[in-house]
Inverse folding.
């Protein structure tokens, strides 16, 4: 059995890896989606990329990173980012753009500026969709963060792959079970956060 | 360039790997469709089971795919069988949920028209609800195709063969040529399959979606 002290570092590395990539995807994805709302060419590129990239197997994305960027922590972050970014952009854009036009018209009617419309009308109405995207991205990031151990990211995947190489079931499990725990925790906490943040009357 | 691709292709048996990959993919997808549609239909019939079943499937879907494949080792070992099981476990949810939603969200007027014409519940299910649910079911299958393609590729790490195997070799040997040829090829296959599924979904929507 792998002792808990030995698992501490991989768990921490795993969480840092997955969350750094997730927050970078949120920080990049939501502004990109807002920009796409006002620029047709950008919108085209983003949606085509999102649809195509989402179909490409994760393993292939992780593999591509090796010859293009290299191996280690930051290349792994890029690989996870490439996966997590798309659902966030896509869902945010869908949420922002599928708003009832009458709401926008009345917001313009009471004299809100373009920025105020985004901040107080479009974004709150898009919260449920954005949350769905971020939740999906968080679960993806958690999953890809195991795989990136193949390209030297460290984390729980290292334990998993060492166990796999040595046919050590205990070791494999002690890498896999914490990752499952983190996934279930993410799923419930995002569900809770969504309930708290989405204003009543929306969604 | 073409020579290099050809060398890698032949040296790593990519033709055989592709066939292997598509075989696993097809078996997994057919199983997932059968079980998924059956589950959706069952839950439509016994609606009180739907919250527990869907939340269980939901939880399974949050599991990292590698962790799921590891959980399956004591039950099914490594190789093709656990890979197929993992694909099916992930793909049941989108297909079952969409089948269920498609079956229950038929507009009441259409059901009333059916009843007025003397259709019994069974006919209403087969002749009204199912056809109108086709676009939704196709949408679920499309999601399942993407999942399945991803997990079959991952199965390469767990001895299932397929195109994940040369990818792993490429990463282990740090050989860009293998990674590019196998990676672009599997990416292209995935995009094409997703495109075909998208086309079918759009066609079904055109036929059955406007009611």
């Amino acid at each position: 059995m792998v002792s808990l002290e030995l698992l501490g570092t991989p768990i921490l590395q795993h969480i840092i890896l997955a969350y750094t990539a997730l927050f970078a995807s949120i920080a990049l994805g939501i502004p990109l989606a807002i920009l796409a709302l006002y620029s047709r060419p950008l919108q085209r590129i983003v949606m085509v990329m999102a649809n195509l990239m989402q179909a490409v197997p994760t393993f292939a994305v992780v593999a591509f990173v090796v010859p293009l960027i290299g191996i280690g922590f930051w290349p792994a972050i890029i690989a996870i980012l490439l996966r997590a970014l798309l659902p966030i952009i896509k869902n945010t854009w869908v949420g922002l753009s599928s708003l009832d036009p009458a709401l926008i018209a009345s917001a313009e009617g009471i004299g809100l500026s373009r920025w105020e419309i985004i901040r107080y009308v479009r974004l709150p109405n898009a919260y449920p969709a954005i949350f769905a995207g971020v939740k999906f991205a968080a679960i993806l990031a958690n999953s890809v963060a195991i795989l990136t151990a193949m390209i030297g990211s460290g984390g729980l995947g290292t334990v998993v792959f060492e166990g796999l190489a040595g046919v050590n079931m205990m070791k494999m499990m002690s890498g896999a079970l914490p990752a499952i725990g983190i996934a279930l925790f993410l799923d419930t906490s995002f569900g809770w956060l969504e309930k708290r943040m989405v204003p009543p009357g929306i969604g | 360039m073409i020579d290099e691709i050809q060398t890698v292709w032949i040296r790593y048996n990519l033709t055989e790997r592709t066939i292997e990959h598509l075989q696993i993919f097809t078996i997994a997808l057919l199983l997932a469709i059968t079980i998924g549609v059956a589950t959706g239909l069952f839950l439509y019939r016994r609606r009180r089971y739907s919250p527990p079943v869907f939340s269980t499937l939901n939880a399974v879907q949050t599991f990292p795919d590698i962790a799921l494949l590891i959980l399956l080792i004591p039950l099914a070992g490594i190789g093709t069988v656990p890979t197929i099981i993992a694909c099916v476990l992930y793909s049941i949810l989108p297909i079952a949920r969409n089948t269920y939603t498609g079956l229950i969200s038929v507009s009441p007027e259409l059901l009333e028209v059916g009843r007025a014409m003397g259709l019994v519940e069974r006919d209403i299910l087969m002749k009204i609800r199912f056809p109108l649910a086709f676009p939704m079911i196709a949408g679920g299958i499309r999601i399942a195709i993407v999942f399945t393609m991803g997990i079959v590729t991952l199965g390469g790490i767990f001895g299932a063969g397929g195109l994940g195997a040369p990818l792993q070799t490429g990463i282990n040997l740090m050989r860009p040529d293998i990674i590019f040829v196998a990676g672009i090829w599997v990416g292209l296959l995935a995009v094409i399959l997703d495109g075909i599924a998208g086309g079918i979904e759009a066609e079904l929507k055109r036929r059955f979606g406007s009611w």
